[in-house]
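Service request form, structural biology core

Requester: graduate student, group of Dr. S.
Request type: structure prediction, single chain
Budget code: on file
Notes: please return the result as structure tokens.

Sequence provided:
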Amino acid sequence: MEKRELERIGGEAEFLVLAKEGIVENAYFISTAPVRGFERLLKGKSPIFALQAVMRICGICFSAHGIASVEAIEEAIGILPPPNGRNAREALGLLNRIQSHILHLMLLTPDLVEDDGRIMYREIELLNKISNLLQKLGGAPTHPPFLAIGGVERLPEEGELGRMVENLRELKEEFLSIRKDLLNCADGSDALATLREKEYAPSFLATHLFYGDRYNLDMGVVETLHYHEFRGEDAPEEAKTSTSMVALYRGRPVEVGPRARLSLYRDFSDGSLWGLQVARMEEVPMAVDRVIRLIEEIDPREPCKTERLVFKRGRGIGVYEAPRGTLIHKVALGPEGRITDYQIIVPTEFNIPHMEAACRGLPAGMADLVPRIYDPCIPCATHVVEVGKSV
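Core staff response, request fulfilled:
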């Protein structure tokens, strides 16, 4: 048995690996991040506060949480954003997806190449460029303040939107160049060969290629369990301390994320572990093209937000395809429009079983590569704390 701290992932986690003769037989993904209690924090609060709070669950997929939250709140109070607001909101989410994918590529690059810094430097420059675009459209490179219930608070001027389109076209060309050079440098590496050879393609779940659609998801068959409940009583004591939940669909694990989206909504069929990264790298230029189209459809002379908000009793579900996969926010509002219940189900909760299963049969020394290729986000998945009992 070997336990190691996972490096170059979003948050704090350990990977407990059980190996025989150097080959992994079983593995346990143990979240060690402390619980911050966002869902309980929201109870009794205004929905306006909820939007600002949930975007701060994570410093990576902030727009995804914000969009899922406003979608849930808007359904609860019975409003829709105007076309400008919807287009700008979708563009913000996709810019966040591109930003996250580039960041993940930076974290994975050391596994693939012995880089002298040139590729990493270009990836950092690309990350800066996409963060600048988020600043222009959302008001900040993280936790965009312009995202609002009913749409967005404001839009860039027409000339600025045109410059954003040109910047996006340049960003796409630079990404494709980096991708080509990275793969050329990585050709023949042990890590890349292992990922290409290891077949692992489970059942998939996704609701939309770019945005999210709650009607493509049966919430009645989404189930969440404490990690130790999912792994059973035979799990080692160390595994029972995990602070993550596990999400199942129709009673079984499903993979969510880029490969799931492209497999269900495009003709994508790479069943290797490397297929996870291939899908992620294919999503970037697709997302850029989609953002360009959305920006070109924005008319700065038209409204971008539904101004009249009446908070009242209601329930809503927001489903969004976050960088790592299907994200779900559920909200209940009381008679005064304040939050009485809030639940968040995040992509990493769906993917935890696959990070564990996919590394079986691999050399123990390469086991931690599997969680990294899945790109887990630990702060988002942390929901369990022991205070006398699990709560």
